Amino acid sequence: MLSKPFRQFGLFATALLLACSFNVAAQDHATAKPKGARIQMGEGHFNRDAKPFHYWDKEKEIPAVCARCHSAVGVPQYLKEGKNTPAPHVKNAYACTNCHADMLTYQRHTVEKVSFPSGISVNSGDNNTNLCMTCHQGRESPASVNKEIEGMEADTPNAKIPFVHIHYYPAGATLFGTEAKVAYEYPGKPYAGRNNHDPDANVCTACHEPHSGTVRVDACADCHRGIKDLAGLATIRKRSKGDYDGNGREEGLGRELANMKALLYTAIQQYARTVGGSSIAFSPDGFPYWYADTNGNGKVDSDEMRPNNPYKAYTPRLLQAIFNYTYLLRDPGAAYHNGPYALQIAYDTLQSLADSGKAGVDMRGKTRP
Ligand code: HEC
Ligand code: HEC
Ligand code: HEC
Ligand code: HEC
Ligand code: HEC
How many A from CA of 238 to the centre of ligand 5? Predict the structure, then answer.
């Protein structure tokens, strides 16, 4: 076993080496801008100490159903066989060969189409984007919600209804909106399909560096004037019209959606108190995320944050709302991946809670995109 400082140095040196050599290797000679590859241990897909790579360390292996996205080289097996076998523990995040079919040309694995949890398959027309969407698609769909609430009264709490969790970073499904069926869509409403961004900014790698996942803010700035940093992205507004959140101002889609999410959380809590008869609160820190807020102070206190303290008074309407709200949280880029879809989902979820008459929601002034 190497001593800790030595191991840290080793890692640092390797990272430095990779970062330098590949930045050079990947220079785009036409524009002389570094493009494509920047590899840094500890970042994004090489965040080797992160939870997605270590959740199973105390178990024998990584279960087959999780191995596609959580093992070092789960993708090629999944692409070939359509499923995975259990995989060994991960030490250094993803292997290069998880995405690259050839380590001389760095060609990526061929991904002809992507199947979403809804069962729908799409081909984005861009192999890299298909590759990204193989993992960035979530794990549940509206069908999982419907299965839990079939035949039940919208506003009657039922202790048998469980929380249904979309899973993390489902960006690819958002990009395709209703064509992928990721969020719970309310009957009779039209929803946006694939995001209609500029054709040059419609694929994952136009906006993200593929290894670290970093947002290419300077690419945004090429087309959206005045953008200087990540925080500025939330102010971007172009051709779309409407004051979605009803605060009297037409703001950037990122801001509009953030405000809608805040309104939704307040409405969810009020609805749960009046209809479920018991309070609910969300914490990102651990399963089951939605807890019974036993003292009703609106947040999850440390004594409430127990795996055996899940919220137990879901109604069908509340499950739909929670599924969608959690989805909007789990895709922190939803306003950019598909602003119209995300805002439609937020609006309709709020409208549904308003329809119950028990959530204290006022829809006046709000606009559905
Ligand atoms: C279709 C791809 C996919 C599958 C299959 C999948 N996950 Fe994930 N999971 C992800 C992605 C992407 C993330 C990264 C999210 C992040 O870092 O916040 C993630 C993150 C996680 C995390 C870390 C959450 C956190 O708080 O950071 C846990 C735990 C997890 N998954 C558990 C599971 C389990 C258990 C299974 C199998 C039953 C599974 N996942 C199957 C894509 C998947
Ligand atoms: C999560 C998937 C993924 C992993 C893991 C990955 N890469 Fe990549 N890599 C890509 C994608 C996608 C591109 C193409 C980016 C583009 O065209 O904008 C790329 C591009 C590159 C390029 C530039 C090649 C070119 O044609 O421009 C190099 C070099 C590279 N990767 C090296 C590596 C190395 C070395 C590793 C392992 C340390 C690695 N990659 C791991 C997805 C990945
Ligand atoms: C094998 C599954 C897999 C593939 C393929 C994959 N990702 Fe990821 N991605 C993950 C997981 C897991 C994480 C979370 C890593 C962590 O927790 O640090 C992640 C993280 C990210 C992040 C957030 C990075 C951060 O630290 O904030 C972005 C952005 C991202 N991926 C974009 C992409 C893009 C773009 C592609 C295609 C080039 C891609 N991913 C391909 C599984 C995958
Ligand atoms: C139009 C540009 C654009 C496109 C196209 C795009 N993204 Fe994003 N993505 C963003 C922005 C902006 C964010 C939000 C970053 C932030 O606020 O931290 C984001 C956030 C994310 C995140 C969450 C990371 C985090 O730390 O918040 C993931 C994962 C992700 N994108 C993956 C993808 C994948 C996979 C694709 C392709 C299927 C994709 N993105 C396409 C712009 C884009
Ligand atoms: C190649 C040019 C180009 C690039 C690069 C680009 N965009 Fe755009 N973006 C556009 C155009 C053009 C529109 C207007 C599309 C429309 O309304 O039909 C747009 C629309 C948007 C919108 C919706 C605005 C509205 O009013 O609905 C957002 C948000 C956005 N872009 C964010 C981003 C982010 C974030 C990035 C960088 C990660 C980015 N864009 C990169 C050209 C680009």
Answer: 7
Q: Which amino acid is at 196?
A: N
Out of 56, 65, 69, mutate this one to test ligand 1's pocket (max ligand atoms within 8 Å of CB): namely 69
346 closest CA partner among 176, 338, 147, 290 = 338
Task: For ligand 4, atom 6, name the residue with the nearest CA.
Answer: 204
- Residue 3 tokens read as 């001593």
Distances (CA, A) of 159 to 63, 75, 326: 29, 38, 20
pLDDT value of residue 38: 84
Query: How far does the centroid of ligand 3 lie from the alpha carbon of residue 45, in Å?
Result: 5
**Distance from Cα 240 to the centre of ligand 4, integer Å:** 20
Of 56, 57, 59, 78, nearest to 68 by C-alpha is 78
Q: Check residue 36 and give its pLDDT.
A: 57
**Buried b or exposed e, range 145-162, using 16+ CB within 10 angstroms:** beebbeebeebebbeebe
Tokens of 251: 């703001």
How many angstroms does the Cα of residue 241 sit away from the middle of ligand 2? Answer: 38
Residue labelled with tokens 């004037």 = 225
Is residue 34 scored above 70 in pLDDT?
Answer: no
Give pLDDT, residue 18: 43
Q: Of the ligands numbered here, which is closest to the C-alpha atom of 57?
A: 1
